[in-house]
Amino acid sequence: MLGLSSAVEITVRCLDRAAVLSDAESKHNDYSNRWRLCTVTQVEELKILIRMFPIWATGIIFSAVYVQTTSLFVVQGRMMNTSIGSFRIPPASLISFNVISIIFWVPVYDRIIIPIARRITGKERGFSELQRMGIGLFISVMSISVAAIVEITRLNLAKKLDLVHKPVAVPLNILWQVPQNFLMGAAEVFTIVGQLEFFYDQSPDAMRSLCSALLYLSTSLGNYLSSAIVTLVTYITTQGGKPGWIPNNLNEGRLDKFFWLITGLNVLNMLVYIVAAKRYKNKTSL
Q: Between the CA of residue 138 and those of 186, 231, 269, what are the distances in Å?
């Protein structure tokens, strides 16, 4: 990441040459070709976009992590006890706790966390956009870690009850998935809202709408990345006739290892983000 940050700065400095008149252009007074000669404003706007790129790129991994709430969290829930008395909880409905978490954390953040942070940091918003995104990334690491621990508990119970080779749900209540969904909702409040504020505030004035759309681009790429990771893991772990980490009968698999893999990628992404955020030059400071 240090090399990437250095490369970004070198690239940014080299762009200054795009606004410098060449001898040929000075001789013929021909300034019509914008591919050969740019205005200083155009160069500075492009510099801002390039400096934002490492921060934007870390959002792709976060999106790949977040998509687990609607994919593998649901798969995990199907192999758990979904009954509470006579009422059956659809596994996909557990994502509602993600929404409940958002509803809970938005007022808590605005009414409690921000005033406290404002006193500590002296900033009007309490946290900067970069700090807010960093907090969200950390919470997302906690969410997937909790999911891995729940899966370990479920697999141990399957072994204890001799259900490993039986494609049946393990008697572990699906409400154990509530913490991981609740944490992911909190991560969304911090990270996604922080990204929206960051892209809007730091983008060039003439490109705010375009830069705000970068969030949705990172979300789309994150979905593709998640699918690619699942496909690659399935291919590698099923070699030699093994059931793999994510088989049809989840009791024979190791979904916990997949969650730990995602956690590791998320931790690495968070470290990259920390380096990029520290080296980021605010638009107002340029």
A: 10, 26, 10
pLDDT the model gives residue 22: 56
Q: Which of 10, 267, 6, 286 is nearest to 137 (CA)?
A: 267
User: Residue range 30-54: average pLDDT?
Assistant: 67
Whether 33 is in a domain gets the answer no
Q: How far apart are CA 142 and CA 46, in angstroms?
A: 36
Tell me the residue type at 146. V
Q: Give the pLDDT band of residue 192 (cuts 50, 70, 90).
A: confident
- The residue range of the domain holding 250 is 52-285
In a domain, 36, yes or no: no
- Token pair for 144: 């997937």
Tally Cβ neighbours within 10 Å of residue 117.
Answer: 17
* C-beta neighbour count of 32 within 10 angstroms: 8
Residue 1 has pLDDT above 50, yes or no: no
Residue 144, in any domain of the structure = yes
The predicted model scores a pTM of: 0.84
Query: What is the total count of domains within the chain?
Result: 1
Q: Are strands 170-173 and 83-84 parallel, antiparallel or unpaired?
A: unpaired
Answer whether residue 42 is part of any domain.
no
**In this structure, what CATH number is given to the domain that contains residue 242?**
1.20.1250.20
Question: Which residues is 87 bridged to in the sheet?
Answer: 84
How buried is 102 (Cβ within 10 angstroms: 0-12 exposed, 13-18 middle, 19+ buried)? middle
